[in-house]
């Protein structure tokens, strides 16, 4: 049985309109006579105001609808249009501006199927914009678009599978907007591992391109980014995703093709500065295995391979850079340094074991090869067993290292062991005066390095197991401000140290 406005109201409204029209016709004939003293502009203005009044009266009709009917029917229409299980509260109000819509407070979205009672989202403000075509028959009201404002979404691993299936089906051509909201990513124990702050999101089907489109603008770990998902209806197994993070000067393109229920193949392209990284990958259940394609970093060849699991987040990665300038990687303004500054790595739910092996043919480079290790466990970051190798002189190795934030400072505390294999080559490189060339096999240093201020504080130095005195530590203080340190100044300071060393 159709629910319409009460007959008495309709009859009264029809009678009112009829009387109003007759009165308007009678007054209009007199009003628009040639002998009328009212100007043409005022006539038009009065006519416009009269029409505007009738239009506003028409727009106000939904305020007469029964709220229980609105609650039940809007909920039904939302599911029919978007296939989303909204649960609408009884706190419903009707607004004319900016366009006619129902404002519903404290709504929810539930998961479908057997999990319908589990909430996927809690929404503070839900706006359902409606067509103005026929307010007299409320059964014919249709939804134009939906805006979700100040919502919290909770997503786990299984929810991604549901969302992936949903993106393979045709979206509604009516737009869903999500503003000022949060997405909480949770593990199996319902612990939050990451939060995306959404500033604006659009979800709709593009009739011209025949694509499902999801555009998201947000922040992840305080890094602003744009996320675009395109899914073709003709080929639902194929998807394209683009991510842009201007702060990191990062662009990511990803295409994937589902081969079976548990296996997906894909290609990922990362562009950052003058580098382009191609990755071929396979996703099987909870594990991603990957390896590099034809990749380059600043005109240097790069090869890598690794595996990534999400529950818990665990990354193992090995990278090899051929003919690469190490100083670029260690530069305070490098991508690696910028990435560390974001605090993304200092997360208790992240585990990482990675290495970067660098070889160089550049004669101006101090080190012929190096291996930088980055290890993360339970929010603790270290660079243990990182090595820098000069084939003629020896090896520098980091151990007992600890990278941490202290207020606004990013500090690396580490032991540095310098094994000198050929002291003659060392003195030759440093251009040390002959009277100060004492045989040395090892140097041990403990220091604190402030990445953001680019400053070093030396805590301890041992030369061939002999603890350096205050004079040597005072000399090393010249290294404190690394901004003003170059190769020539470094040689002068180290030679000054050797002159103070009694041997």
Describe the 3D structure.
Helix 8 (470-476) runs antiparallel to helix 9. The protein has a 26-stranded mixed β-sheet that branches. The protein has 2 domains: 62-248, no CATH class; 284-500, no CATH class. The N and C termini lie far apart (103 Å). It is α+β, with helices and mostly antiparallel strands and 503 residues long. The protein is elongated. 22% of the residues lie in helices and 45% in strands. A hairpin with a 2-residue loop joins strand 22 (394-406) and strand 23 (409-420).
- Mean pLDDT, as a whole number? 83
Number of strands: 26
How far apart lie the N and C ends?
Answer: 103 Å
In helices, the fraction of residues equals 10-25%
Put the structure in a nutshell.
With 503 residues, the chain is an alpha+beta fold. The chain has two domains: 62-248, no CATH class; 284-500, no CATH class.
Helices and strands in order:
Layout (H helix, E strand, L loop, with lengths): L6 H25 L8 H20 L7 H16 L2 E3 L4 E4 L5 E10 L8 E12 L12 E13 L1 H11 L7 E12 L5 E15 L4 E10 L2 E10 L5 E8 L4 E9 L4 E10 L2 E10 L2 E6 L2 E3 L2 E11 L2 E9 L4 H5 L4 H7 L8 E10 L9 E9 L2 E3 L4 E4 L3 E13 L2 E12 L2 H8 L11 E9 L4 E9 L2 E2 L2 H7 L10 H14 L3
Parallel strand pairs: 5-6, 17-18
Antiparallel strand pairs: 1-3, 2-3, 3-4, 4-5, 6-7, 7-8, 8-9, 9-10, 10-11, 11-12, 12-13, 13-14, 14-16, 15-16, 16-17, 18-19, 19-20, 19-21, 21-22, 22-23, 23-24, 24-25, 25-26
Helix pairs in contact: 8-9
């Amino acid at each position: 049985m159709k629910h319409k406005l009460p007959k008495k109201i309709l009859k009264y409204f029809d009678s009112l309109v009829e009387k109003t029209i007759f009165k308007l016709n009678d007054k209009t004939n007199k009003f628009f006579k040639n002998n009328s003293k009212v100007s043409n502009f005022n006539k038009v203005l009065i006519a416009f105001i009269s029409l505007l009044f009738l239009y506003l009266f028409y727009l106000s009709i939904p305020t007469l609808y029964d709220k229980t009917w609105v609650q039940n029917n809007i909920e039904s229409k939302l599911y029919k249009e978007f296939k989303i299980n909204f649960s609408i509260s009884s706190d419903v109000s009707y607004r004319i501006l900016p366009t006619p819509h129902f404002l519903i407070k404290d709504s929810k979205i539930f998961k479908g199927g057997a999990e319908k009672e589990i909430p996927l989202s809690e929404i503070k403000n839900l706006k359902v914009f409606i067509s103005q075509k026929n307010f007299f028959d409320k059964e014919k009201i249709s939804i134009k678009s939906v805006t979700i404002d100040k919502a919290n979404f909770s997503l786990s691993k299984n929810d991604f599978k549901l969302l992936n299936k949903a993106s393979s089906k045709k979206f509604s051509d009516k737009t869903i907007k999500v503003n000022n909201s949060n997405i909480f990513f949770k593990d199996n124990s319902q612990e939050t591992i990451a939060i995306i702050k959404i500033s604006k999101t659009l979800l709709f089907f593009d009739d011209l391109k025949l694509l499902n489109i999801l555009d998201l603008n947000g922040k992840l770990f305080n890094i602003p980014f744009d996320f675009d998902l395109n899914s073709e209806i003709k080929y639902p197994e194929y998807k394209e995703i683009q991510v842009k993070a201007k702060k990191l000067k990062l662009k990511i393109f990803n295409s994937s093709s589902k081969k079976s229920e548990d296996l997906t193949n894909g290609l990922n392209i990362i562009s950052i500065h003058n580098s382009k990284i191609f990755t071929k990958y396979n996703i099987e259940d909870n594990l991603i295995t990957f390896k590099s394609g034809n990749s380059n970093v600043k005109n240097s060849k790069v090869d890598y391979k690794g595996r990534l699991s999400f529950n818990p987040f665990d990354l193992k990665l090995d990278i090899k850079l051929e003919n690469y300038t190490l100083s670029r990687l260690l530069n305070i303004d490098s991508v690696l340094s910028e990435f560390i500054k974001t605090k993304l790595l200092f997360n208790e739910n992240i585990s990482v074991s990675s290495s970067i092996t660098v070889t160089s043919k550049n004669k101006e480079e101090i080190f012929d090869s190096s291996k930088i290790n980055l290890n993360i466990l339970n929010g603790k970051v270290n660079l243990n067993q990182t090595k820098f190798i000069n084939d003629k002189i020896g090896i520098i190795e980091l151990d007992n290292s600890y990278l941490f934030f202290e207020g606004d400072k990013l500090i690396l505390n580490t032991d540095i062991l310098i094994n000198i294999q050929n002291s003659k080559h060392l003195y030759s490189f440093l251009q040390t005066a002959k009277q100060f060339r004492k045989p040395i096999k090892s140097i041990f240093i403990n220091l604190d390095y402030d990445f953001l201020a680019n400053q070093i504080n030396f805590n301890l130095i041992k030369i061939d197991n002999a603890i350096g005195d205050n004079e040597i530590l005072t000399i090393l203080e010249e290294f404190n401000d690394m901004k003003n340190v170059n190769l020539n100044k470094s040689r002068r300071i180290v030679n000054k140290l050797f002159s103070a060393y009694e041997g």
